[in-house]
Design a protein that fits this description.
Number of helices: 16
Strand order of the largest sheet: 5-4-3-6-7
Low-confidence stretches: 502-508
Order of helices and strands: HHEEHHHEEEHEEHHHHHHHHHH
Distance between the termini: 75 Å
Number of strands: 7
Radius of gyration: 36 Å
Strand content: 5-15%
Mean pLDDT: 87
Helix content: 40-55%
Shape: elongated
Length: 508
């Protein structure tokens, strides 16, 4: 488009001086350029609108933190947001509560060693007390570790020649002794404990062994121990997976990204209060969920954070994490001054408290109470939709493929309305929790692994991590000692949770 030239005052005076024809020509020139001017103005208005939307989006991103969005606390940086916790104060004093057993160091009745400090002379008159028996002792106990060192046990198999037939017979080594020189199960268990449970990198595991036991451990030895345990616990994890699929009433799901062999992969967690199952996949969505194989055949309720791929499995009842909703509602209240958002957050918390009170007295909520909560919920959704109608731009634009861009408030309202039964699942079913904190606690271990040790160099290493962490997490949830269950796995008898194989009672 050529640059528009608007007539100046000099042009107008010159035209009047030249006569009527010059004035008419000038007016015609202005009229001819009017359409072009309006097109330029409309283009500028559209640019301004896009820039305003972009600025608003960027400002929204800057306003988000761990308290009003799904961002982790580590992303807050050094400037932590003002504490506006969604949890209400319980009125309890800090520290141990009445009835708590405590963990104070206490003297034991049978110490391993006793050192007697004799009195040779009287501290007052200096006479000798060497032959005087002590009539009592003042006792003090020191808890410490003995000097640690690696013990080497040599196994010798006798070789004998029979004097009768002349043939050679040899003694049998224990089944676990297979190499001329090898590490035992306790060293392997500790190596795996440091690397897979405490997330210490391979090189530093070797340094720990050198400092503690004066015996450095090579990277290959740690990797081999991890592979051995992963192979031993894989069948147990398959049993856990089958149990989660078919026998649990409520199952929690979550996923997080990680770099594996230089490319983005996704760790998927499936868990309950007593079981954990991790899986690694190159995809995040429905393809990964189908190939992992739990969600397509799930018999219980799937609790998750609302990722769209979960809803593609329509045969499964869903429950959404309301902790996510509370954070989003808080953001809308603070950033966009949405009054309905504060009221919706208060209503969800009120319903949660009512459900907890009903559980405390073992009496379900009445149908009338549930209906009243539903009416208030629907009223707030309608109030939110009235405050956030579709923009004129969206209504005027021709339909395109995909979803039209909407405001954060409208997106949340659509989710709360279309998935009402999943949002209020905790109201209808007492077994369904208010949030998905169980899955978030389990998936957090994957992020912690990345922060401490970095990415996974190979897919095989990521799968080994999934096997071992699934086994360890399940054992911890069942009050098992981690070192003990790792030792059991290395000796061929891995820990199996008692709940695995117990079928859920059919619904009434």
């Amino acid at each position: 488009m050529e640059t528009l030239r608007i007539p100046s005052l000099e042009d107008i005076h010159r035209a009047y001086g030249q006569g009527e024809e010059a004035v008419v020509a000038l007016v015609m020139q202005v009229v001819a350029q009017h359409g072009e001017v309006m097109a330029v103005v409309q283009q500028q208005q559209e640019t301004i609108r896009r820039l305003e939307d972009r600025v608003r989006t960027l400002e929204d991103q800057l306003a988000k933190n761990s308290s009003n969005s799904g961002k982790p606390p580590s992303s807050d940086g050094l400037k932590k947001p003002r504490n506006r916790s969604l949890r209400k104060a319980g009125g309890k004093r800090s520290g141990g509560q009445p009835g708590h057993p405590g963990h104070t160091l206490k003297a034991v009745p049978d110490p391993d060693h006793i050192e007697t400090h004799v009195v040779m002379r009287c501290q007052h008159c200096t006479r000798s007390l060497a032959e005087v028996p002590a009539h009592r002792h003042e006792k003090r106990q020191v808890f410490d570790l003995p000097p640690l060192q690696v013990e080497v046990t040599e196994h010798q198999a006798e070789i004998k020649q029979c004097p009768h037939c002349g043939r050679i017979s040899k003694g049998e080594f224990p089944a676990e002794v297979t190499q001329p020189v090898q590490y035992g199960p306790r060293i392997k268990a500790q190596a795996v404990y440091f690397n897979q449970y405490q997330f210490i990198p391979l090189e530093r595991v070797g340094e720990i062994f050198a400092d503690l036991y004066a015996h450095s451990l090579g990277d290959a030895s740690v990797v081999a121990a991890c592979e051995e345990i992963a192979s031993q616990v894989a069948p147990i994890n398959q049993q856990v997976k089958a149990h989660l699929t078919a026998a649990e009433a409520v199952v929690h799901f979550d996923e997080t990204g990680a770099r594996v062999a230089g490319s983005l992969h996704w760790f998927h967690s499936t868990s309950t209060a007593y079981l954990t199952y991790y899986a690694i996949h190159s995809k995040r969505g429905s393809q990964a969920l189908r190939e992992i194989g739990i969600l397509p055949a799930l018999q219980g309720v799937a609790v998750h954070d609302g990722y769209a791929s979960y809803f593609q499995f329509a045969n499964v009842p869903h429950a959404l994490c309301n902790a996510h909703h509370l954070r989003e509602l808080k953001f809308l209240e603070e950033r966009h001054e949405q009054a309905w958002a504060a009221q919706m957050a208060a209503l969800l918390v009120e319903i949660k408290q009512a459900v907890e009170n009903a559980k405390a007295i073992d009496a379900p909520l009445s149908l009338e109470t549930i209906a009243r909560f539903e009416i208030r919920y629907d009223d707030l959704i309608m109030a939110g939709l009235q405050a956030n109608p579709p923009s004129e731009q969206v209504l005027s634009q021709p339909k395109k493929r995909g979803r039209s861009k909407q405001s954060p408030a409208k997106n949340l309202l659509d989710r709360l309305r279309s998935h009402k039964s999943a949002v209020l699942a905790f109201l209808y079913d007492g077994k369904v929790p208010f949030d998905n904190n169980q899955a978030e606690r389990d998936i957090r271990m994957v992020k912690l692994k990345q922060k401490i040790s970095g990415c996974f160099r190979t897919e095989q290493g990521a799968r080994i991590f999934c096997h071992i962490r699934s086994y360890i997490s399940t054992a911890r949830k069942n009050d098992q000692n981690v070192l003990s269950v790792l030792h059991l796995a290395l000796t061929g008898t891995p820990f199996v949770p008692t709940c695995v194989g117990v079928q859920r009672a059919p619904p009434a």
